[in-house]
Protein 1
Amino acid sequence: MIKSGLSGHYQNYDMDKVLIKNLQVETIIGIFNWEREVRQVVSIDLEMEFDNKVAAKSDDIEDALDYKKIGKRVSSYVERSKFKLVERLAEQIAKLVLKEFPVSSLTISVTKPGALRGSESVGISITRP
């Protein structure tokens, strides 16, 4: 909700978004035999819906979505994972964040740099409520 004009009434608005961009983590990921033995870098972008009004007013981290905690938790999880597909990795990260943090929904992108010759990266983007 935001105040509108002179009336002072509140209107609906899209939820605020907290971003983590290009979180790079080394993990086991891939379907080929060599990929099951060599750690590769994946890049993770998170866009998390969270109501930031209280934190904006209080200027207190306790009222905010602590992106440092989320980044550390996601990094730790991904470092220990051994999925074959980025699709599965993205889904599991989404479940983890939605379960452990006060996020109403999120969009997550997971990319593998250098996975396809001639491209910067390949990956997936999913949105979960």
Note: The chain has three helices and six strands.
Protein 2
Amino acid sequence: MPGFLNPTDKRVAAENPDSVRLDKWLWAVRLFKTRPLATMACRAGQVLVDGHAAKASREVRPGQIIVTRCGDLKKTVEVLGLTVNRVSAQQSVLFAKDLTSPEEYERAKLLREDPILSVPRGLGRPTKKQRRAIESIMLGLSGIPRPQED
């Protein structure tokens, strides 16, 4: 039948999608630099959709809240629109509304500027005493109880 467009045709879906794969949307609105990075973040459980861990193949729709962890930053966005093509940074605000609090940005900035275990270049390997202190700090940050010494 001439002029009939199949709604499952990729060209029609790309022009007016009802839903889009999560990894593709995260990449398209520039929350992740590459689509494989978005997929890996979903697999690692670093992406939540409406409070639930989501697979990369999950379909997203306008109005949903997405929380992603990108390094030290926990970014919260609301889906405003859908796109399957990557858009410019200026156009990404048409598809995603940033709900991340200013305190979260400040916290991430402080963590980047003042790392706990920064060591100036050129000091070489840590001594045994320094290594034990580093391990003690790392265990304290991870929440794992320290082993008791007799």
Note: The beta strands are 20-21, 47-49, 52-53, 59-60, 65-70, 73-79, 96-98.
